Amino acid sequence: MPDWNQISGEISNVEANILSVGALDVVRRRYLKELHELTDRNVITYYSGWLQKPGIKGTEINDEDKNGFMTALHELDHTKGLDLILHTPGGETGATESLVDYLRSVFGINIRAFVPQLAMSGGTVIACGCKEIYMGKHSSLGPIDPQIGSIPAQGVVQEFKRASDEIKANPDNFLVWQPILSKYQPAFIGRCEKALKMVEDMVKDWLSTGMFENEDDAEAKGSHIANRLVNYEFFKSHDRHITPEDCLGIGLKIRFLEDDPELQDAVLSVHHACIHTLAGSRVFKIIENHTGKAFMQLAPP
Q1: pLDDT digits (tens, 9 = 90+) for 59-95
Q2: What crossing angle do the helices spanning 65-73 and 93-107 adopt, rounded to 10°?
Q3: pTM across the whole model
Q4: Which of 91, 166, 175, 250 is the most buried (most CB within 10 A)?
């Protein structure tokens, strides 16, 4: 497997020998094609440049991404299933749900998620909609507790419940809690409760009908994992990185890339090539298949 520096050198060599096509595109698409030839499955990358271009609007999962997937899925042989390579910080819950529903409408549950580095929050939700998840020892998923305006929904609900309990026990406590509770409108509390239930129910359903399909305890497994992933108290922070071992510990079906060195090499080569594109160009989002059909978004010059 070429490492980061070797792929960088390969890009430089290509740049010296072509005029019409970007070297970043040539190298990235070469490795995407090689991964497809290895697995004989459809391959789509879903990459965000939130690390390389912080602050750019659109790096998160959003409804515009549907157009990218429509482009990438066009004319593919849907009977070959899908290998989805994820690198994303997460994003809008409704858009995440819509993307998974769309992919499942095309491929059923014959979708494998590959996480070469990070699939946080909504990225973890997408991975839970797949039949299995491939990770390296360096890879991470993340908690799926919804954030509303950067505020953890479960934290708000728990804070409100604690205040209610303490005021019921001693009405004088209202004076302590009043400045805190005044930050929240009653409708906001309800919104947080609904957001939590939406994400938990969504992941529970996808796990029980996908990853654990036809297993006797599929619903119980899906419920346990969804409840654990959405639990803000358990993970303590929304940006907590969940290791493959911890993912296995809560019951997810994880396959280690290290167990198949040839597959690991092919996936990490695609990953490095995508990261080089995000770091070395104006591109901040890549949705691309193994035939080279791509939907890319560019940062302003």
Answers
A1: 999 999 999 999 999 999 999 999 999 999 999 999 9
A2: 10
A3: 0.87
A4: 91
